[in-house]
Amino acid sequence: MKMYLISDNVDTFTGMRLAGIEGCVVHTEEELRDALQRSKQDKSIGVLLLTEKFGRDFPELVGSVKKETNQPLIIEIPDRHGTGRRPDFITAYVNEAIGLKL
After folding, report:
1. Beta-carbon neighbour count of residue 102 at 10 Å?
2. Out of 29, 35, 66, 72, which could bridge 48 as a Cys pair, Cβ 3.0 to 4.6 Å?
3. Residue 96 neighbours by CB under 8 Å, 6+ apart
4. H or E element, residue 30
């Protein structure tokens, strides 16, 4: 199984290509929808990387695809501008996931 990137910018795409990860660059919701559909249909893709901007700009689309898809595993990654997550993201994630206050 391979990793595949759907990026909103050429810089992140180029960096991942240098690491051997294929992908595409999209900008609109329709382009993202098409790229997600193609990625879901490609059974060789095990991990689908999305830049975080898509989660911020199109939360309904990204959320629905994550819920309805078991494979590929969809992971949002920071782009060249850094992460959009708050500083205590990991602690909050653990609290939410297992109810353990750290």
Report:
1. 8
2. 72
3. none
4. helix 29-41
